């Protein structure tokens, strides 16, 4: 709950005379905020520790690299040169607030919190929800019903506390 106050203080009311965001939380906006929270979590710096497996041997297969298709070579170079933008303080505060909503939801119904958090994580990473349902042996209809119920509950809870939409 203290995160909600921080978000409200960070956002303020200075939208340049225009308020593009609605005054009330809708379930779709809650869903977007949860997905954005997990996307922000993925962009956070990793803890320092042992190196990941692989890539420890020197690259000496120069002849094999000469045989690579030029298009594939450009794709590999682009992937290796990709930079990751770190999240801003506002994005981190919004992430903390959204993850706190899941904690509150877990006290109400742990099943709804699990479904909603796994859905948001899969959506943030661009993974299939159908595969998630198959892995967990959940019926898709029940999965979507629980997710919708959780988003409606979270929207109503945020509106009752007068949390500003972000």
* Helix/strand order: HHHHHHHH
Which structural class is indicated by helix and strand composition? Answer: mainly alpha
The rounded Rg comes to 21 Å
Sheet with most strands: none
Count of helical regions: 8
Average pLDDT works out at 83
Structure description:
With 166 residues, the protein is mainly α. The chain has a domain at 27-44 and 87-161. Helix content is 64%, strand content 0%. The chain is built from eight helices and no strands. The longest helix has 21 residues, at 140-160. The two termini are 15 Å apart.
Topology:
Elements (H helix, E strand, L loop, with lengths): L1 H10 L15 H17 L18 H5 L3 H11 L8 H20 L1 H15 L4 H8 L3 H21 L6
Helix pairs in contact: 1-5, 2-5, 2-6, 2-8, 5-6, 6-8
Summarize the structure.
With 166 residues, the chain is mainly alpha-helical. It has helices at 2-11, 27-43, 62-66, 70-80, 89-108, 110-124, 129-136, 140-160. Helix 2 packs across helix 5 (89-108) and helix 2 (27-43) packs across helix 6.
Keywords:
mainly alpha; 166 residues; 8 helices
